[in-house]
Amino acid sequence: MAMRSTDRLRAAEEVVARLRGALGEAGVILPSLRVDPVTAASDVACPLVDLGRCNLDMAMRIVAVLHEARR
């Protein structure tokens, strides 16, 4: 049985909250991070996560965090 749209949205919001928390612990803040409203409102199986926009300093912080994680 397929997930209802409210269940898909709730699951997507939970993932976004967990991602926001994990990124925050690494010092990465993406103010535009959200569930994509277009795919959340449609009948797609999984709504997309919109990582949004960030400034150059935050982009460099993301690069540093990813580089450190690869070590």
Q: Would you tell me the structural class of the helices and strands?
A: mainly alpha
The beta-strand count equals 2
How much of the sequence lies in strands comes to: 5-15%
Radius of gyration: 14 Å
Strand order of the largest sheet: 1-2
Most strands sheet: 2 strands, antiparallel
Envelope shape: elongated
Q: In whole angstroms, how far apart are the ends?
A: 42 Å
Total individual domains: 1
Following the backbone from N to C, one meets helices and strands in this order, namely HEHEH
* Residue windows where pLDDT falls under 50 for at least 5 positions: none
Mean pLDDT over all positions: 89
Helix content: 55-70%
What's the helix count?
3
Q: Would you kindly provide a brief summary of this structure?
A:
With 71 residues, the protein is mainly alpha-helical. It is 58% helix and 6% strand.
Commentary on this structure:
- The protein has 71 residues and is mostly helical.
- It has one domain (5-70).
- The chain is 58% helix and 6% strand.
- The protein has helices at residues 5-25, 37-41, 56-70, and strands at residues 34-35, 49-50.
- A two-stranded antiparallel sheet has the order 1-2.
- It starts with a helix and ends with a helix.
Spell out the key features of this protein:
single chain, 71 residues, two-stranded antiparallel sheet, elongated
